[in-house]
Design a protein that fits this description.
It is a single chain. This protein has about 260 residues and is mainly α. The protein has one domain. About 55% of the residues lie in helices and about 0% in strands. The chain is built from twelve helices and two strands, in the order αααααβαβαααααα. The chain has a two-stranded antiparallel ribbon with strand order 1-2. Helix 4 packs antiparallel against helix 5. The longest helix is centred in the N-terminal third of the chain and has 22 residues.
Length: about 260
């Protein structure tokens, strides 16, 4: 679990990372996408099961920021050991920030909703369930669909990294990972790096859940917090029905983020 203030700080931090790593038309389109999905982006969980990774309100963005941070650290580690790069820093940050966008659902419906089955909650830890109104797709397929539908171009490197983020946990990725000859190997290590970043983040989140410790992502607000704060003032209020882990005090604080105080 993370608190209401931390959810707000995470959203501000995400916007700061966008402004730091992107520019021009691409930045504008990514900001438009973020604005369109901001309520879900702020409040969505990262999975359905409490033990898996970040299955609580705000878990998605907390997870995404962790993946981005780990990806940049792995990038430095690869460089330290002399790995050759053929991808850009922008591609690294784009994939790490948006490769799991499909977890937010489609334009009309959120992907994770409150589980109304007490048996699944108590016995399997499935505090959320998949929304039947969202067409069944792999997360990476829905991610690519949303990006192209929003007019955001994806480079060859970015596509392969998004497509292969699950590594060999996805059977269809054997074509990419079990290469029989050098010509069919990945041309760079970005897909491997992103897969490692996601798996590392998930393991950390599992250990946090298992130890019962509070999730801590950022301890202070970024320097441009006021700018990000202004960008969310007119957002619609939280839908508490799909956020089962909020108490009334937390809901009240969250609702205040979305009130028009101008």
């Amino acid at each position: 679990m993370i608190g209401a203030e931390q959810i707000k700080v995470n959203f501000e931090t995400f916007n700061e990372v966008l402004e730091t790593n992107f520019e021009g038309e691409r930045l504008e389109k990514l900001q438009t996408l973020t604005e369109c999905l901001k309520e879900r982006m702020m409040l969505a969980p990262a999975s359905t099961k409490d033990w898996f990774n970040n299955a609580f309100p705000g878990g998605y963005l907390d997870h995404v920021l962790r993946v981005n941070k780990i990806a940049n650290q792995l990038h430095k580690l690869y460089d330290f050991h002399g790995a050759t790069e053929s991808y850009t820093t922008e591609e690294l940050n784009f994939v790490s920030l948006f490769c799991q966008l499909g977890k937010l659902g489609d334009w009309e419906h959120e992907y994770f909703t409150k589980n109304d089955s007490d048996w699944h909650v108590k016995n399997l830890g499935m505090v959320y369930k998949f929304n039947e109104h969202v067409p069944a797709m792999k997360i990476y397929d829905r991610t690519i669909y949303l990006l192209q539908d929003a007019g955001i171009k994806v480079s060859h490197n970015e596509y392969l990294a998004i497509r292969n983020q699950e590594g060999l946990f996805d059977e269809s990725n054997k074509f990419y990972f079990y290469s029989g000859q050098k010509e069919t190997k990945f041309r760079n290590h970005l897909p491997l790096l992103i897969h490692q970043a996601i798996q590392t983040a998930q393991e950390i989140e599992y250990q946090t859940w298992n130890s019962g410790k509070a999730v801590v992502q950022q301890s202070t607000k970024p320097a441009n917090a006021s700018k990000a704060d202004k960008s969310i003032r007119k957002a619609k209020a939280i839908n508490p029905e799909n956020n089962p882990n909020f108490n009334e005090k937390t809901k009240s604080i969250i609702d205040s983020f979305f009130s028009d105080d101008e």
